[in-house]
Amino acid sequence: MSATTAGSYQMPSAAPALLPEEQADPIGKGLLIGGGILGVASILFGFPGILALVWMTMILVGSIRTFGRSAAITGWGISALVLYCLFPFLWLVRLSMDPAANGKVLPSTFSLANYGAVLDNDEFVRAFFNSIIVAGSATAIAMLIGGAAAYALGRLPVPGKQYIMFAVLAVAMFPGISIVGPIFELWRTIGLFDTKTGLVLPNVTFALPMSIWIMSSFFRELPRDLEHAAYMDGATPFQAFRKVMLPLAAPGVFTSAILVFINTWNEFLMAVSLSATSNSITIPAAISFFQGENTLEIPVGPISAASVMVMLPLVAMVLVFQRRIVAGLTAGGVKG
Amino acid sequence: MNPFAYLNKLDERRLGLVMVVPALVLMAIVAAYPVLKAIWLSLHRYNVKVPDDYAFIGLENYTRILSSETWWTAVMTTLSFGVLSVGFEFALGLVMALVMNKGLGSATGLVRVAVLVPWATITIVTALAWKWIFTPTFTFDLVNRITGLFAEESCMLCGHWTSIFAMVFADMWKTAPFIALLLLAGLQSIDQEMYEAADVDGASTMTKFLKITLPSLRPAILVALLFRSLDAMRMFDLAYVMTQGANDTATVSMVAYDFLIKRLDMGVGSAMSVLVFLMVLIVAFIFVKVLGAAPEGTDPKPSRRERKLAASQPLTVEMAH
Fold first, then answer.
1. Residue A55 near residue A35 (C-beta atoms within 8 A)
2. Between helices A196-221 and A246-266, what is the axis angle to 10°?
3. Distance in angstroms (rounded) separating the CA atoms of residues A140 and A257
4. Which terminus of chain A, N or C, has fewer Cβ atoms within 10 Å?
5. Percentage of chain B with pLDDT > 90?
6. Interface pTM, i.e. ipTM
7. What CA–CA distance (Å, rounded) separates A261 from A286?
8. Structural domains of chain B, count
9. Around Cβ B130, how many Cβ atoms within 10 Å?
10. Which residues, in sequence order, are bridge partners of residue B265?
């Protein structure tokens, strides 16, 4: 970098892409700002597509001249990444205000009427509470059962540990469709069909592998000395677990709880197969049941509004717990 | 009375058993029993609507399914979707991981949140959003233009292959960022000295990528690949919402669901679900073989669990601090 700075003093504009950052470059800035204005305007007001080539080139050249090639490329990469990840969500927000987009970016009205309509819809509100109850209790039970199993598998001498771990892994690989038929039949016989309990049980089972993998990886990281110290003080193995290890592993438990909750909130196959009425129907199933035969018949506005509202708690969770979630996802490395 | 009195008296071995048993029981009831029951039902003629007509018919359900065109179309759709989505997700995920690795330091929090949003989005909502993005009336102009290059009247969801690609795009959006996070954790755990040493040797960027980056990421990539492929093999919700099986885009899970839950034909439906299970098993088997095929270094062949642990190890270590 310093070599370039020193050399560029004599160098005219032979290699504009390599211009150092410190040197003022009105052309680059002008291109960048002009291209940006033109770009925003053409996206908002739908200028002809051929113009896109012009403003994209302007922005590209402008940013390279202003920030240097490497920084510009990284910056563009990061911006594109963020935009790509948020675009569908933002598009739903836009459709929720004015569904007939027909290519235009800005909605013709900024009305929240569809949100009101969704909140007035009894079915949706009940589905929302069903989802909270099902996902909440499935998560709590999975933490209890899975946490115990994770501790045992992570730190205690359990006979046949490999086989148990393999069984857990096998359950993680299970296609839901292979078990939904018999469960459907069994639930109908014993009266669990279309009940929240009937949804909680399979969800707990699907959540177990993930919670066991993540939590046992957290439990394994705790130092051995802690247990020994507890034993020296006369604690039994269970007391060592409850009083010493569990409090220390609490962040790990919490992390897996977030991941399990989001996964359960998302569960669809069991939800459409094992529920029929608003007695137990969850959000994903309720949203999908709105679908008509013809694409144009779907109430796009209200469904978009409902989708956005359902997303808000999850986006809030992501905002608050981002570090934990990333730690949990990468520590478990198991399932998305 | 201490509720834990019983547990307090146990030694390590017994306590371990007691703590593992509830999970095993639940998995046995809600996972193992239904699979066995499905295998049993698949050998019978049994429709819930006509319970009297219940008879053992051997493999007849299987021969019927395996000679039906619908089934093989669904198998091809599922496999195409699987190969395309997993391939694209990894390519995009790797690019994203490299970009994030290079650009970290500026706005990390914002980037992390943005990347987690697709992962946290309900699949049904993902499917709807992309369905509408790919439907001209509800679309965004730029997308309309781009899809217009590939599909007639820019209607992505009107043809077989364009529909599959639409689903691939939706799946890619939802999971590529997640894969990028996994790979990023792997990237950040690579010893920087290796790159410095390579620089001294005058290695090119490409060489460094192929000889250092990719091999270091291999364990993380393989584990993620395995689970993504299994997810793709059992894909149900995306197709259910985006295409509803139109243009021959029903996946195997959808066809099985149609027989099991819609037609209540437990015999044929169970046979299909067993076949899906076999497909998943075969894919898992191939991957586990691949995972064990070339253990790094000359260590004696590790057990499946150790391999699994080794695969997640660099990540775990990375996230510990």
1. yes
2. 140
3. 8
4. N
5. 42
6. 0.84
7. 18
8. 2
9. 26
10. B47
Distant-in-sequence, close-in-space partners of A312: CB < 8 Å, separation ≥ 6: none
Lowest mean pLDDT among A108-122, A199-213, B240-254: A108-122
Q: Is residue B51 part of a domain?
A: no
Residue with tokens 């018999």: A182
- pLDDT value, residue A154: 86
The answer on B126 and B19 residing in a single domain is: no
Query: How many CB pairs (< 8 A) connect A and B?
Result: 348
Q: Do B244 and A296 touch (CB under 8 A)?
A: no
How does pLDDT run across B202-237, given as a tens digit for each residue? Answer: 888 888 888 888 888 887 788 788 888 988 999 999
Residues of chain A within CATH 1.10.3720.10 domain(s) are 115-332
Phi then psi for residue A166, to 5 deg, are -65, -40
Extract the tokens encoding B167.
């689903």
CB spacing of B13 vs A158 below 8 angstroms: yes
**B29 and B70 together in one domain:** no
Q: How confident is the model at residue B137 (pLDDT cuts 50, 70, 90)?
A: confident
Say whether both B78 and B30 belong to one domain.
Answer: no
Q: CATH class for domain A115-332?
A: mainly alpha
Q: Chain A 285-324, CB below 8 Å of chain B: which residues?
A: 287-288, 291, 295-296, 300, 303-304, 307, 310-311, 314-315, 317-319, 322-323
Assess whether B15 and B72 both reside in one domain: no
Q: By residue range, what is the domain housing residue B300? A: 62-320
B137 and B172 inside one domain: yes
The pLDDT score that the predictor gives to residue A15 is 45
- B50 strand-pairing partners: B47
**Cα dihedral sign, B80-B86-B87-B88:** positive
Q: Is there a contact between A333 and B34 if contact means CB atoms under 8 Å apart? A: no
Cβ–Cβ contact B257 with A under 8 A: yes
Tell if the CB–CB gap between A100 and B224 is shorter than 8 Å: no
Q: What is the pLDDT of residues A246-269, one digit of tens each?
A: 888 888 898 889 989 999 999 999
SS3 A137: helix
Q: Using pLDDT thresholds of 50, 70 and 90, give the confidence band for residue B109.
A: confident
B145 and B21 together in one domain = no
